[in-house]
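Hey all, sorry for the wall of text incoming. These are the two entities for the joint prediction.
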Amino acid sequence: MTEEIIIAGFGGQGVLSMGKILAYSGIMQDQEVSWMPSYGPEMRGGTANVTVILSDDRISSPILTHFDTAIILNQQSMDKFEKSVKPGGLLIYDPNGITRHPERKDINIYKVEASKEAAAMGFRKIFNMIVLGGYLKVKPLVKMENVIKGLKKSLPERYHHLIPDNEKAITRGMEIVEAVHTV
Amino acid sequence: MGKELRLMKGNEAFAEAVIRAGADGYFGYPITPQSEVMEYLMAEKPHERTGMVVLQAESEVASINMLYGGAACGKKVLTSSSSPGISLMQEGISYLAGSELPCLIMDAMRGGPGLGTIQPGQADYFQLTKGGGHGDYNLIVIAPSSVQEMYDYVEISFDLAFKYRNPVVVLTDGAIGQMMEKVYIGDQKPRLTEEEIREKYPWATLGKTPDRERNIITSLDLDPYRQERHNLHLQKKFKEIEENEVRYEELNCEDADFIIVAYGTSARISQKAMDIGREKGLKIGIFRPITLWPFPKKEIRALSEKVKGILTVEMSAGQMVEDVRLHASEKIPVEHYGRMGGVIPTPNEIVEVIENLFVKG
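and here's what came out:
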């Protein structure tokens, strides 16, 4: 199994840390992982993205042009990455702020209203974990227990008291993710 | 392989390896895409862990000269920088090589020339394998292609530096520095005590003792015959390194019709191209030089005698390709494919180039 994922959105949405938690979760179940961020001028304000690969085999290129899954969190990223999902692949997005919804007919499209839900839960910082939950519902590649272990590894200890909130957010994401178009 | 498993950036793995290798001092000046090295070292406070010094110098020129001072005392010292910073260090690097001082220099290459871009590049190959500074000298140049290798090659590089009394360069690029992968961390090695340094490195200038003459470390000798003798001694050492320290990795070369020669990030991308190509029935193999100097000459020669074509993939206008052409059989085509200025070649582009050059052509 190899899963090649791009997560793309604004800086501050937790794009890079979502990727990191996913990578750590992969390690917890003995997979090979790579995490390749955009570190260029875009990191200094504006869009941010990260390529994460989970695999049972040695990972070749950490830099990719086509992905099994694209997790898209703003319009610029939709414009840039909708076309880079492999046919039959998966696109998950948060419709908040999206003006042009995905149009492809050859991929699976799901939406997760994470911004809205995070606001409703009164804790905006867990936005990215709601998105992650949505993704893991559609593609249960890593077990919840490994995600929690991954969270523990990637969060400094002073934030460990927030892990139950993160878990709640992931579960909520799993509940609210909705199919828009499937192939 | 160590037991402790972590998810780390290449730059961080390098920095942790430096502490664990028992280094005595890091001297550097921040520059993207390797600033995490000093940032990590500062946060880790190695002076509390092992007594290692971490110092931000006022410039790259100052850092390389601090290395000269530390290395002359037999200390394990290093610096890290990115392309423009390495250019600034060239005078000091020539002096270190001339004075036979061991040290470790890491270069996380970015696209150039000039200030260029902060995105990855591989255009410092000429600068580091062919000189860069003045005079007849060589640097041992090692090119890791994974975060684990960024960790593992630190200790190996220090060992080589002291074995041959010569600077060693870990030549990497922005992509490997910035990406995170699994790393197995090894045990902490103790720093050498002054007594141990005196015993292991009798040349070190730690102060004269009654039982020996004064140690003098210099690259200056105004007597041309003595200077020539020194040069001949250096050349003999470089020859010995060329004979004993070549490292490389081969992937699927046994049955290959076409070989991609690539190092660092380009080698990783080329592996994906190999997989795509093999699915299409193109028998592609990868030859990855790990030491760029000494260059795996004999191995390139031997491979070139059994394949139909060689393509080098580099993030440059074609630098390593010159060494491949020099040693490959003249009966087969040796071509180059590169992207520059921070643009990274894609696996599909590479497959297309192989098809166009060697299959359709």
